Amino acid sequence: MTKSINAAKSATKRTAHISLPSMRKWFAFRPLAVSMSVVFLSACGEEPEIASIYTSVDECSSNNPNYMQECKVAYQEAKDEALRTGPKFLGQADCEFEFGQDNCEYVARTEEPVPGNTNANNQSSSGSFFMPLMAGYMMGNMLGGNSRNRQFSQPMYTSNSRNSALRGRWFGATGKDYGSQRNRSAKVYSSDFKPKPTVNNTVKRGGFGKSVARTQASSRSWGG
Amino acid sequence: MLRRDIAARTNWPDTAQEYGFSFHTIDGQAYWDESAYYQFTLEQIENDIEDPTQELHEMCLHVVDKVVQSQALLNDFCIPDAFHEAVSDSWQAKAPSLYSRLDLVYDGTGPAKLLENNADTPTSLYESGFWQWLWLEQQVDSGALPNASDQFNSLQEKLIMRFRDIANHYQQKNMHFSCCLDSDEDRGTVQYLQDCAAQAGLSTPFVFIDDIGVTDTHRFMDLDNNPMDMAFKLYPWEFMLKEEFGEIAAYSDTKWVEPIWKSVLSNKALLPLLWEMFPNHPNLLPSYLHRDLNKVDKAGKWVKKPIFSREGANIMIIDNGDIIAQTGGEYGDEGVIFQQFTPLPKFADNYTLIGSWLVNDMPAGISVREDNTLITQDTSRFVPHIILG
User: Fold this and answer.
1) Is the C-alpha dihedral spanning B296, B297, B299, B301 positive or negative?
2) What is the CB neighbour count within 10 angstroms for residue A220?
3) How far apart are CA B378 and CA B352, in angstroms?
4) C-alpha to C-alpha distance for B137 and B130, rounded to whole angstroms
5) Residues 124-183 of A with CB under 8 A from B
6) Which positions in chain A touch B42 (Cβ < 8 Å)?
7) Which residue of A has its CA nearest to B129?
8) Is there a contact between B378 and A9 if contact means CB atoms under 8 Å apart?
9) Which of A1, B39, B59, B267 is positioned for an S-S bond with B2, CB 3.0–4.6 A?
10) DSSP secondary structure letter of residue A96
11) What gap in Å lies between CA A220 and CA A218, rounded to an integer?
12) Highest-confidence range of A47-51, A114-118, A150-154, B112-116, by mean pLDDT?
C-alpha cells in the first residue's frame, strides 16, 4: 500500500504520449464497446439469421435475379443511412487514420438555411466533412420469404488502416463487427435492427439518484 | 510560482468541440481560462507538492486503517451502522482504488497545507489529464512557450495503467460507467475515464445511475439488462448509502470503483483524525470534530465545513466568533468539522487553489483553479500550468 517517498522521479513530469485520434469526440467512432454487445446478444438465446453483404447493386442483382428492384432500393437506403449515421470526420487524415488511405470521401454540405423556414427538421448545418466510403451493404431476410419481418439494409464499412482493430472486417455505422471481409454473409439478430426492450419485470430501477436536487438549473457537477 | 498572461490559442473553441470538451463554459461563465497560466519550478513541484502529496496520502490511509476498526469512529464519520461491516471488509480485502485529488493551499513557498481529500468522486479530471496537456503541446508547438516547458501531469498514462491493474485484479474485461443525468460535466468526466479504460483494453458500457436496475437476486443490471459485474460510479457513497439500493450495493458482488472504503477517505472527519494522529505535521491544519469544540481557540479564525460538503457548499469562515464569509447549499445535516483558516494565495485578483492528483497511491499531477472569493466553489476557473526552471 505504501511507496517510498524518495522513489525515482521520471525525466518529464507529464504523460509521454497521447493518441489524439483516439481522443476525438466529434462523431467519434468507438467500435470497442459496441462489438461487445454481440457477446451479450448471443448469450440471450436469440436465434440468429443470416444476412447477405453485397458490394454493388449488380452483385446483388446477379445473385438474386428476381429482386433487382429490391437490390436497388436497399442500396439507396443504405447510402442514405450512411450519410445520416456513418462516422464523420473534420479532417481527411483523421478519417484515413481509422479507415485507411483512399478510403474516405469528402462530403460538401452546401445547403444554407432557408430564410424564414421554421421547420425544426431543417438541417441548417453547412459543415463539410470526410466520411469513409461505403464498402458494401447488408440486406436482411426479405429474400428468405418471411413476410412478417420488415426488410432492412444497412451500410457496411471496411478499413485497410493498420491503426484500426477492424482492419479487413465488415462493420456497421456504429462499429459493430460482422466478420471477415472475405465472407459475404453474417449472422445477425433481430435486435440489431430494433431498439432493445428497456423494461424487464424482474428488474427494479430508480433506487439510485434521488439525492441529487433535480430543481437546480445548473448543469454543473455536484462532484468534488 | 508565477501567474503569467498568454494569448489564448485562436482556434481553441473549435479544438474543444473536436475533442468533446463541452463544459469549458458553464451557465454562461468561462470555466476553462487560458488567458494565463501558472509557472512552477521543478523543485517546487517535486519538493513542495509531489512528495507531500505522497506523504499526506499515506497518512490518510493510516487514518482509514484506524477508523474501519472502530464502530465509534465510523459513527463520527456518519457512516450508518448497516454499512460498517461492508466498509471494513472492503478495506481488509484491499479493494482497489482508482484516483483521488488532494486540495492544497500553496503559494510557491513554505509547506503546502491540506484542505481536503476528494477521494470518492473528484471531477476536473479531463481538464487536468488531457485538456491542459493538449494546451501545453500546442503552445510549445506554436512557439508561444519554450521547448523546455513541462507539466506535472501524468494522469492519463497512470489512469490507463490503473484500469489495466483493476481489470486484472478482478479478472474482468468489462467495466460499466455511471453518473447522474443532467450534468455535462460529470458525463464528460466519465467519458474521459471510459476512454482511458478502453485504451487499457476494457469494454466500457455506460448507464445513468438513475437507470441502474437490480434483480431479485441482488444483481445490478444496466438498461440493456446486462449484469454490472464491475462498475465505476461518479456518485458518492454517502448518497448511495442513503438511497434505496444502498445496502444492496454495499454487499453485492458488483466490484465498485471507487470501493466503499473510500467513503472514509473522502470524509471530512478525516481531517481532525489526521491532526490527532499526526499533530503539528507541516502539511496539516489544526482540525477538530464538532464534539471537540472545546479545543477550538475561539479567538482564532476557523472554517466550519460539513462532513459531506462538496464543491465548497455550506462552508462558513468564522473570525473571533463572527461569520465573515459563507456559502449556501444543502449539506450539513450530518455533522461538521472545524479547520483552522488559512488564506488562499492571491495572484492578480484571483484566489488560487492547487488540486494534487493521485492515481491509486501515486502522485500524478496537479490542476490549478482560481476563484474570485476565498472559498473555491464550482464557479471557479481552471487555469493551465507549466514547469519551467
Assistant:
1) negative
2) 22
3) 13
4) 11
5) none
6) 13
7) A15
8) no
9) B39
10) H
11) 5
12) B112-116
Q: What is the mean pLDDT of chain A?
A: 69
Look at the block and give the residue holding cell 443532467. Answer: B182
Whether pLDDT at B377 is above 80: no
Nearest partner of B52 among B107, B113, B97, judged by Cα:
B113
Q: CA dihedral defined by B63, A4, B355, B327, rounded to 10 degrees?
A: 10
A80 in a domain, yes or no? yes
DSSP annotation string for B245-269: THHHHHHSS-EEES-TTHHHHT-TT
Residues of B in contact with A165 (CB under 8 A): none
Residues B190, B211: Cα–Cα separation, whole Å: 16
Grid cell listed for A79: 447510402
Count how many domains chain A has. 1
Name the least confident of A112-121, A186-195, B131-140, B356-365: A112-121
CB A86 within 8 A of CB A157: yes
CB contact under 8 A, B311 and A223: yes
First to last CA, chain B: 11
A182: in domain: yes
Going by pLDDT thresholds of 50, 70 and 90, the confidence category of residue A166 is: confident
Average pLDDT over residues B225-234: 94
Handedness of CA B176, B177, B179, B183 (dihedral sign): negative
Q: By the 8 A CB rule, do B338 and B288 touch?
A: yes
Q: What is the rounded distance in angstroms from the CA atom of residue B334 to the CA atom of residue B79?
A: 10
Using the Cβ of A32 and the Cβ atoms of chain B, whether some distance falls under 8 Å is answered with yes
Which residues of chain B are within 8 Å of residue A211 when distances are taken between CB atoms? 239, 242-243
Structural domain containing residue A174:
47-86+134-192
Contact (Cβ atoms closer than 8 angstroms) between residue B243 and residue A211 = yes
SS3 B238: helix
pTM of the model: 0.71
CA distances from B39 to B5, B6, B210, B376, B388 (A): 11, 12, 42, 20, 7
Map A134-200 to HEC letters.
Answer: CCEEEECHHHHCCCCCCCCEEEEECECCCCCCCECEEECCCCCEEEECCCCEEEECHHHCCCCCCCC
A with B: how many residue pairs have Cβ under 8 Å apart? 190
Spatial distance between the Cα atoms of B73 and B269, rounded to a whole number of angstroms: 9
Q: CA B63, B65, B66 angle in degrees (round to 5)?
A: 65
Residue whose C-alpha cell is 481522443:
A23
> Which H or E run includes B318?
strand B316-319
**SS3 category, A43:** helix
Tell me the ipTM for this assembly. 0.90
